[in-house]
Amino acid sequence: MTTRRRRGNSDSDQTFTNNYNTQESSVVYSKEKEINKIMPRDRTAEFNSAVRSLQGRQIARAVQVRDVKKVKALQSYGEFMMIAKSVGFNISNTYAKLEKLTLLAKRKSLFNDRPQEIQELTYIIKEDLNSLNQQIAKLQEVAKLQKAAQNNVGRKHLLSHESSVVLSLQSKLANMSNEFKLVLEIRTKNLKHAKSRRDQFSQGNNLAALSDSSSLVPRQNSLLMSSNQCAINMDNNGDQDRLQQVTQQTQAMAVYDNTDQYLYSRAETMQNIESTIVELGGIFQQLAHMVKEQEEMVERIDSNVQDAELSIEAAHTQILRYFQSVTSNRWLMIKIFGILIFFFIFFVVFVS
């Protein structure tokens, strides 16, 4: 009886399996690598850690060198950048609030209006703008103090960066204040439009209906009273008529009270908007003063550039004069050499 041997895994099969697994893993790795190349990665934390380590190295080097002025300059620059970072964060938050206020203020519906929320956002944004204006003024004062203290220290690039940061924050605050003013103007126009629509479609009809109802009630009462006087005097009917008249008068007074309350709230909203615009004018004046200081600095730079341009033009004219003198002397030398060569040839040929 013949026995069958079980065929085991040969070396060729194992080699084929290993090669297949290796190829599959390489394909998966290449796919993951391609996906990592395509997909973006947030490396902000790595960047921040690198910046902090670089700043720490600079401070450590300054401490090792025992350069007190350099250490103070780096510390003051770090404080300045921390304040600027907080100001930028507050500006971004205020921008988010301003976007929400813009969406609410652009609504023209009479029934989907949110005056309380709009007033709260207006007050909050106004306070934020005042606070940001004060923070930027403080930041500018810090930059001025650092500039006065570091005139003799070779940190001109830090000072220029600080001035550019202050100017950028001022421009952002000015743009945001201008947008806030435009939103308030849009809100004012929408309130006026809503008031005209309400007066046209609601208030006139209500007043007409109330006047008709109030004019009809006394007539009916007078007719009833005359009929009652002619027939039998019934106290119950008279009480009911007087109760109905008092009820209608109360409803009319309630409508008038609601209208007055609505108009009072709208008037208060308009006053708040006007006062906010006036305060924004003050902020614009302060920003104009800050920009004026920057303008004086730019004018000084412009005057220096003009002086440099005049100096360059004067140097150019002097170089041209020198070139003309050199060229003229060159022609003189050529003439002299020509005469000498002529006499040399003449004496060599004819005299000798």
From TrEMBL:
PROSITE patterns: SYNTAXIN (PS00914), T_SNARE (PS50192). Residues 1-23 are annotated as: Disordered. Pfam families: SNARE, Syntaxin-5_N. Residues 11-23 have a biased composition (Polar residues). It is found in: Membrane. InterPro entries: SNARE, Syntaxin, Syntaxin-5_N, Syntaxin/epimorphin_CS, T_SNARE_dom. GO terms for biological process: endoplasmic reticulum to Golgi vesicle-mediated transport; intracellular protein transport; vesicle docking; vesicle fusion. Keywords: Coiled coil, Membrane, Transmembrane, Transmembrane helix, Transport. One of its GO terms (cellular component) is SNARE complex. It comes from the Eukaryota. Residues 260-322 form the T-SNARE coiled-coil homology domain. SMART domains: t_SNARE. CDD domains: SNARE_syntaxin5. It is a single-pass type IV membrane protein. Belongs to the syntaxin family. This is Syntaxin-5.
